[in-house]
Amino acid sequence: WTDGGLRRTIEIDDRGRSLTTRLEHDGRPLLVPGWSLFAAGWRVVVDGAVLHGACEEVEFLRVDQTAPFERVLRHRVRTKPVAIDLHVRSFGAAPAQFQWLEIRNEGDRPLVVSDVQSLELALSPTSLEGTEAHRDFCSIRSHPDHYGGMDDPAIRLDDPASRRGLFLLNLGPGLVRRSVALVGYTPISTLGYDTARFPVERDLAPGSSFAADPVGFLAYDANPHGTLRAFAARHLVGRPLPAPPILWNTWQPFGLAIDEPLLIELVDRAADLGFELFSVDDGWQERQGLWREDP
User: Fold this and answer.
1) How far apart are CA 74 and CA 174, in angstroms?
2) Residue pLDDT, tens place only, 15-40
3) Which helix (H) or strand (E) holds 254?
4) Which one-letter DSSP state was computed for residue 244?
5) What is the mean pLDDT of residues 167-189?
6) How far are the Cα atoms of 27, 191, 210, 235, 241 from residue 238, in angstroms, in the given order?
7) Dist. CA 121–CA 150, nearest whole Å
8) Is the pLDDT of residue 89 over 90?
9) CA-wise closest residue to 170 among 100, 252, 66
10) Do 212 and 243 touch, CB atoms closer than 8 A?
11) Rounded CA gap, 212 and 151, in Å?
12) Residue 217 burial (CB < 10 Å; 0-12/13-18/19+)?
C-alpha cells in the first residue's frame, strides 16, 4: 500500500506468514543504494512462546485502514487465544513510518506478555560496508558495531559516501526503552522494550490488551539533523502524552534496610498520599550480588 509518498510491500506466503520486503519513497528505494532490506518484522513473547510475523504459529489476516495514513495489520495466533495487531502510521510526504504492537487476550485465563519488539529491521549481511552508527542521542560515532540502550531515543545509520541514511526512533520511556543497531556481519536493528536491565512484562487479563509505544524510522538526504528537527517539530513535539504515574521508591531513605512488615506499612501510606506505583529497590534479594528473593 501507499500512504503519502511512502510505499510498503508485504509478502504473504501460503501459510499466512508475512514479512515486509520493500520500502520505497517517491518511487525509489527508501534505503541507501547498496543497503538491501531483508525483512522488517516484529517479535513478542506470550506465555514463553516467541511469536513473530514469519513464524508458523502466527497467521496474517488482513490490512485495515483505520485513519488517514494509518493501517492495522491483523494477525491471529493459531496455538493461543491471542490477537496481534501491528499499527503502522505514515506522515504524509515525509520519508518516515512508525509502528507499534497491540496484543489482545481473547481467552479465559491471564497471559504474560514480554520482550515486545515492535520493529526489527534486518539488512543483508554485506550491505552496510562503510556504514557508521551514531549513538547516545546521535552524538557518538561507532563503527563497526553498536549496541544501543535505554538512553537512545534515536540511532543514526549513516552512509558517508552518499550522505544518506536512516534514523531509528524509539518513543518508549527511557528506563525501559531498548534501541539496538548492529552494523557488522549480521546487521539488524531492534526497537522496543528492554529485556535485560529493566525487563518489561505485562499480565493480560481475559479481554484486555496492551499497546506498545511507537517506534519507527526516518530517512534523510545530506542533512540528517535538519531533517530530524523538522520532522520532530511537525509531527512529534506537542503530541498528547498521558500524564506519567506518580511513583515512590524504597531506596530513599531505607536503602537495603527493608522487610515485609515495613513494605506493607509503606504501601498503605504511599496510597494514602496519592502515589500510583510503588517500587521495591535493592534489598529484595538475600544479599547484594545474589539475585534470589529473600523469603
Assistant:
1) 29
2) 888 888 788 888 888 887 777 776 77
3) helix 251-254
4) P
5) 74
6) 31, 23, 24, 8, 8
7) 18
8) yes
9) 100
10) no
11) 18
12) buried
Separation between Cα atoms, residue 169 and residue 178, nearest integer Å: 10
Which tops the pLDDT comparison, 146 or 44? 44
Instruction: Give the three-class secondary structure for 15.
Output: coil
221's grid cell: 538526504
Q: Are 119 and 197 in contact (CB under 8 A)?
A: no
Beta strand 277-279 pairing with 247-249: parallel
The residue assigned the cell 535538519 is 226
Q: Residue 260: CB partners within 8 Å, gap ≥ 6?
A: none
DSSP 3-state of 263: helix
Q: Compute, in degrees rounded to 10, the torsion defined by CA atoms 254, 150, 120, 107.
A: 20
More confident site: 76 or 173: 76
**Overall size of the chain counted in residues:** 295
pTM of the model: 0.79
Share of the chain above pLDDT 70, in %: 87
